[in-house]
Amino acid sequence: MKIINLVENESGDSGCEAAHGLSFYVETENHKFLFDSSPSEVLIRNAKTLGVDLTAVDTVILSHGHYDHSGGILPFVELNPQAKIYMQHNAGGEYYAFDGQDKGFRYIGIDKKILSLPQVQFLKGDTKIDDELQVFTVDQRAYPLPSTNKRLRELCNDQYIQDEFHHEQNLLLTAGGKKILFCGCAHNGILNVMETLERKFGPASLPDLVIGGFHLMKRTEFSEADTAEVTEIANRLKSYKAHFATCHCTGLPVFNQMKEIMGDQLTYVRSGDEVIVE
């Protein structure tokens, strides 16, 4: 099995570019797939730098309907028009970020051209693609949502309402004797993602490795409440046996805080880094 972080916010030692977004390339016995596609054609450039053949990819799984995860799809399909692209049926909604009173609301959804691609498969909730790939959504929440979600909205009936992230999906990969959980941003909360996985599929489904962002980074200084939120999440994640490889919207300051609690159980993966599966 091979897992490579093609694109994320920080660059590693591979010569790959950094960009605000996320894309993983994964090789298993049965698949060569992408989990998310980065914000742009940086996906293509980094794949070339790493010698990853995107024309051999058979599957793309989009975690949710934001540009920084979907922006590489149109450049990708120019190279590879055969791969199936899986997203939730409402991933093409009107999703916005509130950038403050001066700047207002900014569209952060996917390019609508993607929705008419013939290779796109729209899913409704949990879907078993095959024996390796199980997509699932968070249907109920035992823990609070990340406080950083507050500025993320959906335009509905001319109102910017709170985005409930029903368009978000996660992937449980079962391959090579391991279970690996991929989450793009965990907008539903990484603790809720973990709880949902166990509740829906049983304790045996709990992963050996969790890969993805936790959406805890902020543009402003952290308050005491923010620090307490991160501490609570890190302590609860520490109770799992999984290793956590995080990136993107977790942010390095949050990673460093969580690392103090989780130690070797937590690593950060940058653009071009390979994730070691042990």
UniProtKB/TrEMBL annotation:
Q: Name one GO molecular function term.
A: transferase activity
Q: Superkingdom of this entry's organism?
A: Bacteria
Domain annotation Metallo-beta-lactamase: ranges: 20-248
Query: InterPro entries recorded for this chain?
Result: DHPS-like_MBL-fold (IPR041712), Metallo-B-lactamas (IPR001279), Metallo-beta-lactamase_dom (IPR052926), RibonucZ/Hydroxyglut_hydro (IPR036866)
Q: Which residues form a coiled coil?
A: none
Q: What is this protein called?
A: 7,8-dihydropterin-6-yl-methyl-4-(Beta-D-ribofuranosyl)aminobenzene 5'-phosphate synthase
Which species expresses this protein natively?
Answer: Treponema bryantii
